[in-house]
Specification:
alpha/beta, TIM Barrel, eight-stranded parallel beta sheet, 8 strands, binds zinc ion
């Protein structure tokens, strides 16, 4: 088991994109700053996609500009095609995140591309990022199951990962976009992909639709994943995946690993403060378990 992992904060993008309440640019920047104050050093800050399809991300450029360049922080922009890559590069993000769909049906609904087309597009995005002096990473969406096609053949995911790795990303991620994965499946797929793309690292991305999210994160790290995506408060969902619930909550994942002796670089108190603040902005309780629980170990009585 690793002694330390990296948690990528995806709340400002994956967390917010499915929310009907449009969050102001200023509040998005405040969210990112609070995550940085809690220790986040790699953050998905926006997606550069069609604003008619994802209205919450229409201010991507404005978020990048208002945030500036916080010291030591890698700012990720999610992109689905060449046009998005050009926008993200022009806006000045540090890292481009591409998405390849494991199934044709999800790929077409999410980004208008078959699985093979999305792999080609991701390779183009990675090349554009590198040519512009940035880094590129890629996430294989619905790697553990598709809302339309059901089970996905693990051999297909391994083949996709191998092909994507050849384009020179800084990592390949496996995403459970709809939250169907279970730990045994995670253990097997992370191990297989890791072997296929070594020494390139594996990142994982889990949604907690069926209450298996943190168990999956644990299984993934045990199997050698070094980076886990998480969203403050457990906010999130996918507008193109019916029934998909939020991401694993950053504070829940940080608690699990920190109390198990695996460092995350995150400050739990500050994460919880930020989570409660975000709950106020969204006007509702967030899915996070830790945010609802009493502190542990208990704080000394004054
Ligand atoms: Zn997601």
């Amino acid at each position: 088991m690793a002694r330390a992992i990296e948690i990528v904060e995806v709340g400002p993008r994956d967390g917010l994109q499915n929310e009907a309440l449009l969050v102001s640019t200023a509040d998005k920047v405040e969210l990112i700053r609070r995550c940085i104050a809690a220790g986040a050093r790699r953050i998905e800050i926006a997606s550069f996609v069609n604003p008619r399809k994802v209205p919450q991300m229409a201010d991507a450029e404005a978020v990048v500009e208002a945030l500036g360049r916080p010291d030591g922080v890698i700012r990720i922009g999610l992109v689905l095609n060449r046009r998005g890559a050009e926008r993200a590069i022009a806006a000045g993000v540090d890292q481009l995140g591409a998405v390849a769909g494991a199934s044709d049906t999800f790929g077409v609904r999410n980004q208008g591309q078959s699985s093979a087309q999305s792999v080609d597009e991701a390779k183009t995005i990675i090349a554009l990022a590198k040519a512009a002096g940035r880094t590129g990473q890629v996430t294989i969406a619905t790697a553990f199951g598709c809302p339309f096609e059901g089970e996905i053949d693990p051999a297909h995911i391994v083949a996709m990962a191998r092909e994507l790795a050849e384009a020179g990303p800084c990592e390949v991620a496996l995403a459970d976009t709809i939250g169907v994965a279970v730990p045994a499946q995670v253990t097997a797929l992370v191990a297989a992909v890791r072997q296929a793309i070594a020494p390139l690292p594996v990142r994982v991305h889990f949604h907690d639709t069926r209450n298996t999210g943190v168990a999956n994160a644990w299984a993934a790290v045990e199997a050698g994943a070094v980076t886990v995506d998480a969203s403050l408060g457990g906010l999130g969902g996918c507008p193109f995946a019916p029934g998909a619930a939020g991401n694993v909550a950053t504070e829940d994942v940080a608690y699990l690993f920190a109390r198990s002796g695996v460092a995350t670089g995150l400050d739990l108190d500050r994460l919880l403060e930020a989570s409660h603040w975000l709950s106020g902005i969204m006007g509702k309780a967030l899915p996070s378990s830790l945010a609802k629980a009493a502190p542990f170990p208990p704080q000394a009585l004054a």
